[in-house]
Specification:
With 159 residues, the chain is an alpha+beta fold. It has helices at 45-56, 58-63, 76-85, 99-104, 145-158, and strands spanning 15-18, 23-25, 34-38, 67-72, 92-94, 107-112, 115-120, 123-127, 133-137. The radius of gyration is 15 Å and the shape is globular.
Length: 159
């Protein structure tokens, strides 16, 4: 289990398969903010609520020049079904070996009813146009999170 990436650090590079086909590389998005959020599993209640909140606010986020990317250990086929079912309007990236989640610190030990296991800790990273982490949420509570993310992007673009 690795340490969390903190604000001010360079965002770990990635090159992940997307549900849209092809791969997305963080370096190709340099020059504009990126909202990189890690979630445990496609089509589960909390993950669906979070994805739909980003979907519903996507015009606002795009107007601020930012790109939203969701990451989970699910494969691209699962992501494609999830994306279609909820009409998500941003890419979902597959991290089946959880290497990128580990690089960001989102792969954590979880304790559910006394049973310990490893998995994704719901977390979000706002990466600035230069590729540095500007804001980190380590234990995301879904309600209202979309607004916190938008506020962080606005703070970046107004700086």
């Amino acid at each position: 289990m690795s340490d969390w990436i903190e604000a001010g650090q360079k965002a770990p590079a990635f090159h992940l398969a997307s549900d849209e086909g092809g791969k997305i590389r963080l370096s190709s998005l340099k020059g504009s903010p990126v909202v990189l959020y890690f979630y445990p599993k496609d089509d589960t209640p909390g993950c669906t609520k979070e994805a739909c909140a980003f979907r519903d606010r996507s015009e606002e986020i795009k107007a601020l020049g930012a790109t939203v990317l969701g990451v989970s250990p699910d494969d691209t086929e699962s992501h494609a079904k999830f994306r279609t079912k909820y009409e998500l309007n941003f890419p979902l990236l597959a991290d089946p070996d959880h290497k990128i989640a580990e690089a960001y610190g989102a792969w954590r030990e979880k304790n559910m009813y006394g049973k310990k296991s490893m998995g994704i800790q719901r977390s979000t990273f706002v990466i600035d146009a230069e590729g540095k982490v500007a804001k980190v949420w380590k234990r995301v509570k879904v309600d209202g999170h979309d607004q916190h993310v938008i506020d962080a992007i606005k703070a970046l673009t107004e700086a």
